[in-house]
Amino acid sequence: MSIAATTARQVTLATGKSKDRTPVSLAFLVALWFSLFFGVVVLLALIINTAIDGSGRFDIELLTNYVSVVRPEATGFRAGILGSLWLMGFTALMAVPLGIAAALYLEEFADPTTRWNRFVEVNLQNLAAVPAIVYGLLAVAIMALLGFRDTGIVLGGALALALLILPVIIITTREAVRAVPREIREGSLALGATVWQTTWRQTLPSAIPGIATGTILGLSRAIGEAAPLVVVGLAGSLLFDPEGVMSSVTALPMQIYSLTSNSREALREAASAAIIVLLAMVLGLNALAIFIRNKFQRSW
């Protein structure tokens, strides 16, 4: 390389660095960090304030008792916690197999050039941004078509939450499958395996860590949703545990929603403590997703 070319390259690099440090770029960087800092501070302030408000109710009765208006100081969220677990179980049972199957079909078998598949692609991206309450309306419509008069049951709530997280599971599963190197597929096909055998025995097992992470993150979103459950008609408070898919059910977000506006201070204090319990459940699911990703993720 000539001296002139070297000098020109150094000037270009110096100019690029100077452009990165212009007043406009520095102002944008400061605004970006301030926005991040402000958001984190506000979130921490809300969490700390809620924890202080509910600090008097961090006891075992909060988890084992039912909501009580007779003894509000001993009210608990047993029905809501168990109801949320029932809903998450049936939500995963409905959404995960369907979401993984749809993602595998779209990524491995479908022809992306057809109008139908392009239509599905566009709507799948749009469904991920639809407000949660719309999925509640859709679940009510589906339950009515199936002949159910009472939609405030485990099946109705799980259906609404399954519809809510289905686009998320499909998108994350497709990304996980897409991350598997093409050479693995080509090697399997070269040895005589069919496309289905390659997908089932090679591609899917290699994508399991990413699929599991996306699924758990989707469930962590669903466990904190109240809007679709309100539309479906879940009870705000129950004094019994769910016993099956056709049983009436409540959920922890529903009970929190119904008690935060109550006039009794003891019930509002219990609702604040329940918010921390719900937050711990969500953070626990997120931590599990991070653990699975870090433990089983492969570097291709």
Automatic annotation (TrEMBL):
Compartment(s): Cell membrane
Pfam families, per the entry: BPD_transp_1 (PF00528)
Keywords in alphabetical order: Cell membrane, Membrane, Transmembrane, Transmembrane helix, Transport
Transmembrane segments: 26-48, 85-106, 127-146, 152-172, 222-240, 270-292
Topology in membrane: Multi-pass membrane protein
UniProt domain ABC transmembrane type-1: residue ranges: 81-289
Functional summary from the UniProt entry: Part of the binding-protein-dependent transport system for phosphate; probably responsible for the translocation of the substrate across the membrane.
Family membership noted in the UniProt record: Belongs to the binding-protein-dependent transport system permease family. CysTW subfamily.
Name recorded for this polypeptide: Phosphate transport system permease protein PstA
Organism annotation: Nocardioides furvisabuli
Protein's gene: pstA
